[in-house]
Amino acid sequence: MQQHVRLTRLKMLACFSALAFFIVIVSCADKNNPAMPPTGPKLTISLDSTLDDTTGTTLANSITSATLADSTGTLIKTALISDGKANFYIEDLYPDDYFITINGLNQERVPTRIIAIQDTIYDMTQVVGKKLCSSLILSGSDTIFMIKTFFHGQGGRPVRQYSNGVDLSPEEYAYIIQSMGEWTGNFEVRVDSTAELLMREPNPRHSPHQFRSWIAGEANHGKVLLNNPDLITSQCQGMGCHNNYDTKPPQWHDISPMIGYCYKCHYGSTGISAGMVDPAH
Ligand code: HEC
Q1: 113: Cβ below 6 Å to ligand 1?
Q2: What pLDDT was estimated at residue 181?
Q3: Burial of 16 (0-12, 13-18, 19+ CB in 10 A)
Q4: Which of 221, 228, 269, when mutated, tests ligand 1's pocket best, judged by the most ligand atoms within 8 Å of its CB?
Q5: Is residue 281 within 6 Å of ligand 1 at its C-beta?
Q6: Is-contact 47 62, C-beta < 8 A?
Q7: What's the rounded Cα separation, in Å, for the pair 278 and 196?
Q8: Which residues share a beta bridge with 218?
Q9: For atom 3 of ligand 1, which residue has the closest CA?
Q10: pLDDT tens digits for range 187-232
């Protein structure tokens, strides 16, 4: 019995010394290598209500937390918040689309795009509307991408199958990403949170429209047409450019400027509120 007590004491002593040793090691390591503030290129997110459209509701007035996930939904980074801005250190990310959850709002993930210029990632700024639908990505003072999401309840409706107009199941919401380079770049429609590509259009200077501003921006075709429905008949159709835009060709690939043109992106001539199309279904 006494021997047993002695053994237990010995064991406890061994445990305590191991613990003490461990604490000494950890505190030494800490002194040699104090926690360094992160460095390197960062993506800074801030909010700006001037980017908001009239539809939808304000979802965030300030940023209290932000996380970044990849297109598989895996959480990659948590932002450091300072002065109401979220900072992600992005040096170790590969160029791709990622999705930011602001203030835990998982249903309205803000897409972002990390790019590398000659294999190097630089600082980027993303200004996001308070409805979390519109954003601009800047590098220095240059706007490099314009992004818009069409979420449920924010003026959007689910993506529809081109073939039969039925919503994809489970529901998917689209975002557009418009490259803002002066001469080159793409217009893309993708699915929020997964980045699945629905359609990509090179960014030519279609005459008479400057494609970039005609699609998205201050005076995009949607705003012009919504405010002046007569223009659809007098201009789009009347000038003989988009006759039969309401006739949906059986195959998405058969769409031409003259036949079913509006279906190239959204399910008919009423625009975003009709849902974006998935050409593959
Ligand atoms: C290349 C893709 C594309 C094509 C083709 C296209 N649209 Fe759009 N449309 C968009 C995008 C993107 C928006 C949203 C723009 C924004 O919010 O900045 C939009 C918005 C609209 C809106 C605003 C409606 C709303 O719910 O906000 C209308 C109306 C509209 N489009 C009509 C048309 C008509 C009519 C045609 C055919 C003559 C057409 N669109 C062809 C991409 C397209």
Answers
A1: no
A2: 67
A3: exposed
A4: 221
A5: no
A6: yes
A7: 10
A8: none
A9: 265
A10: 899 999 999 999 998 765 566 677 777 787 777 888 787 777 777 7
The CATH code belonging to domain 28-145 is 2.60.40
pLDDT digits (tens, 9 = 90+) for 92-105: 999 999 999 999 99
Residue 64 has a pLDDT of 97
**223 CA closest ligand 1 atom index:** 23
Q: Which atom of ligand 1 is nearest to the CA of 236?
A: 38
All residues at 6 or more sequence positions from 11 whose CB lies less than 8 Å from its CB, including other chains:
none
Residue of 162, 215, 234, 235 with the most ligand 1 atoms within 8 Å of its CB, for mutation? 215
pLDDT of residue 30: 44
Which residue, by CA, sits nearest to atom 17 of ligand 1?
216
Q: What's the pLDDT at 207?
A: 64
Domain ranges of the chain: 28-145, 157-281
Give the separation between CA 275 and CA 227, rounded to whole angstroms.
Answer: 19
Interval between CA 129 and ligand 1 midpoint (Å): 20
SS3 201: strand
> 18 is written with which tokens?
């191991």
Q: Which atom of ligand 1 is nearest to the CA of 55?
A: 27
DSSP string, 194-235: T--EEEEEE----SSS-HHHHHSSTT-HHHHHHH-THHIIII
Closest residue by Cα to residue 134 from 55, 210, 68: 55
Q: What is the pLDDT of residues 236-250, one digit of tens each?
A: 776 777 778 888 999
